[in-house]
Write the structure tokens for this entry.
Amino acid sequence: MNELVKMLQKAAKDEHAAVIQYLRHAYMLGEGEEACEIEAIARDEMRHFWMLSRWIRKLGGTPTIERNPVDLGGTAISDWMHRDEEAEKRAIALYRDYIAHIKDPALKADIERILADEENHREIFAHLAGKFRRLQSAEGRVPPQSEAPSLLPADREALEWGVRHEYTALLQYLFHSFMVKDEEASRQLELQAINEMQHFGWLAEELAGKGREMPLEPHPADLSLEPSSMLRADIKLEQDTIRKYEHFIQRVQDAKLKKLLTFIQNHEMYHEGLFKRLLSQLQG
Ligand SMILES: [Fe+2]
Ligand SMILES: [Fe+2]
Ligand SMILES: [Fe+2]
Ligand SMILES: [Fe+2]
């Protein structure tokens, strides 16, 4: 395989890991200014993943939804921030090395643009690590990981299944958006992937708010390359999900969670209809 494609795939797997690592930290922090700041960085990493995947496609490669390892270590918030800063330092070193080897001016400009973001992220994480370190020493202890509030088994199952599903849908639709040539279908798949990322965030935040770790592994995704097979797989995923959410809506105890699942299920119904329309247009 093309050496450049391999380099970009490695970077894409790192970006993917950064998205998940930072979101995990943001959700565990809960509400607040710092959590918002970290979530915004995770969105930047998502954009980097998107930019790299487009280049992989442009250079004749296949974008990857594999992920490099996520750093799950650390019990204090300052320690998480320090680990995030370390991840940024690794990214900075990698992209500096890439820039020295890349000849295509447009690709070089994109990597330089990503590098500038990483340098900014590194500074933010260094600042946050210092801030939380001072807070901890002022309190003389690590801020408590909130005593886990009670979470009924049915509610927990719904949240955990939902997080894994939304993660899968997000990756699958992004992958399909990169591979499909039809412009309208590609744009729509990308938009719905962003919507699935919102669902992922709502459910993962809910789970973290109850003091539970969010699942880090998606369900298996469909990586079809032929446009109508893609859309058929996407329609099936939505249909299965609508049924699964219906099952959870009947069982969950928490009224707020029931409302959230019903809201999300409604989006999934829209997705199903949209994908059916796109499929018939493609076949038209
Ligand atoms: Fe990045
Ligand atoms: Fe970054
Ligand atoms: Fe969803
Ligand atoms: Fe959906």
Remarks:
- The chain has eight helices and no strands.
- The domain at 147-284 is CATH 1.20.1260.10 (Ferritin).
